[in-house]
């Protein structure tokens, strides 16, 4: 196999692991930890998810470049995963940031469906990353 193909096989699994670890393990547990207030949890969450999204963009670009050099089929799944990431970063995260700013400023806000939209997109992203990996392995 070529280096591009190796990278192409490793990156979606690495990306998948990061999303599962942060979105589905770290994020919910942090709010249950002793002494972690809502303000602290939100502050940490904003930093962690900003960093995660930056790494995800880098992974999406690197995966796209590897895809070009490996000359592989299955672009649609990669495009869909990337589109979800763009949607999260440009459409869903900005209102979440505004909401957390208001909460950190002391406002008492009701629960929001915006957060559920982000979670739904994370679930879809996990499913698609698994599909990307399975598709690539099937092409070997």
Number of strands: 0
> Strand fraction band?
under 5%
Q: Strand count, sense and closure of the main sheet? A: none
Q: What is the structural class?
A: mainly alpha
Shape: elongated
- Rg, rounded, reads 17 Å
Low-confidence stretches: none
What is the mean pLDDT?
93
How far the N terminus sits from the C terminus, by CA atoms, comes to 9 Å
Report the total helices.
4
Helix and strand element order: HHHH
Residue share in helix? over 70%
The count of domains is 1
Task: Please explain how this structure is put together.
The radius of gyration is 17 Å and the shape is elongated. It has one domain. The mean pLDDT is 93. With 140 residues, the chain is mostly helical. The chain contains 4 helices and no strands. α1 packs antiparallel against α4 and α2 runs antiparallel to α3.
Summarize the SSE layout with pairings.
Elements lengths: L2 H28 L7 H33 L4 H30 L8 H26 L2
Helix pairs in contact: 1-2, 1-4, 2-3, 3-4
């Amino acid at each position: 196999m070529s280096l591009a193909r190796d990278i192409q096989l490793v990156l979606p699994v690495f990306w998948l692991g990061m999303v599962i670890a942060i979105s589905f393990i770290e994020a919910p547990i942090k709010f249950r930890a002793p002494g972690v207030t809502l303000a602290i949890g939100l502050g940490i969450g904003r930093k962690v998810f900003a960093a995660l999204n930056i790494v995800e963009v880098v992974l999406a670009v690197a995966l796209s470049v590897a895809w070009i050099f490996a000359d592989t089929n299955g672009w649609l799944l990669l495009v869909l995963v990337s589109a979800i990431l763009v949607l999260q970063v440009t459409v869903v995260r900005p209102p979440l940031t505004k909401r957390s700013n208001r909460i950190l400023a002391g406002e008492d806000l009701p629960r929001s469906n915006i957060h559920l939209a982000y979670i739904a997109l994370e679930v879809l992203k996990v499913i698609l990353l698994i599909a990307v990996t399975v598709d690539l392995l099937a092409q070997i």
